C-alpha cells in the first residue's frame, strides 16, 4: 500500500468530516460549524492539517496548533485531531501522520508535541505510549461555557 502524507487542502473537508464520524460516533456533528473550524485552521499560520491518502482516498487526518506553553518554556504543538479510517488501522498510517507532524513541529521550533485522548480510546492510548513514545503526564479538564 502506497500511503501519501500531505498537507490538507480546503477540498478535503468532506472526507475529513466523514472520518470525524468514526472518531466521535456518539456525537451529533454540526457540519457547518465544523467547516468553519476547518477553514479557519487550514488558513492559520499556527495550525497544521495533514492527511494520509491511498489511491486518491483520504484515510487519515491529523491537526495541531502551535501554542505558547510556560511549563515547556517555549512553544509546543498541540494535536487536537487525529484519526485513521477504521478499516486502515494497524497499517502504520497513524505512525506516519504523527511522525510527519513531529517533523513539522520541530522545524517550527516546538519543544514538544502533546495531545489528549478520550478515556474510552484505550487502543489509541496504547498506540501513543507504546508505539509513538508519548508519556502520560496530565489529565484534561473541560468546562462548558455556553
Describe the overall structure.
It is a single chain. By secondary structure, the chain is α+β, with helices and mostly antiparallel strands. It is built from 4 helices and 5 strands, in the order βααβββαβα. The longest helix is centred in the C-terminal third of the chain and has 15 residues. The model has no long low-confidence stretch (mean pLDDT 94).
Q: Strands across the major sheet, in which order?
A: 1-2-3-4-5
DSSP helical segment count: 4
CATH topology heading: Aminopeptidase
Tell me about the biggest sheet?
5 strands, mixed
Domain count = 1
Tell me which CATH architecture applies here: 3-Layer(aba) Sandwich
Overall strand count: 5
Assign an overall shape: globular
Order of H and E elements = EHHEEEHEH
CATH class call: Alpha Beta
- Hey, roughly how much beta strand do the residues contain? 25-35%
Summarize this structure briefly:
This protein is 33% helix and 28% strand. It has four helices and five strands, in the order βααβββαβα.
Features:
4 helices, Aminopeptidase, 146 residues
Helices, strands, pairings?
Layout: E1 3-7, H1 13-23, H2 31-42, E2 47-54, E3 57-69, E4 74-84, H3 93-107, E5 112-115, H4 122-131
Parallel strand pairs: 4-5
Antiparallel strand pairs: 1-2, 2-3, 3-4
Amino acid at each position: 500500500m502506497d500511503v501519501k502524507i500531505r498537507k490538507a487542502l480546503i477540498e478535503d473537508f468532506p472526507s475529513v468530516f466523514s472520518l470525524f464520524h468514526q472518531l466521535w460516533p456518539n456525537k451529533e456533528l454540526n457540519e457547518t460549524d465544523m467547516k468553519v473550524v476547518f477553514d479557519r485552521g487550514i488558513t492559520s499560520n499556527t495550525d497544521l492539517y495533514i492527511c494520509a491518502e491511498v489511491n486518491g482516498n483520504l484515510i487519515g487526518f491529523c491537526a495541531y496548533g502551535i501554542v505558547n506553553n510556560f511549563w515547556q518554556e517555549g512553544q509546543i504543538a498541540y494535536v487536537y485531531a487525529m484519526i485513521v479510517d477504521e478499516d486502515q488501522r494497524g497499517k502504520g498510517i497513524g505512525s506516519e501522520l504523527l511522525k510527519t507532524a513531529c517533523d513539522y513541529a520541530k522545524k517550527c521550533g516546538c519543544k514538544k508535541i502533546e495531545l489528549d485522548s478520550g478515556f474510552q480510546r484505550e487502543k489509541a492510548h496504547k498506540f501513543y505510549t507504546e508505539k509513538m513514545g508519548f508519556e502520560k503526564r496530565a489529565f484534561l479538564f473541560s468546562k462548558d461555557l455556553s
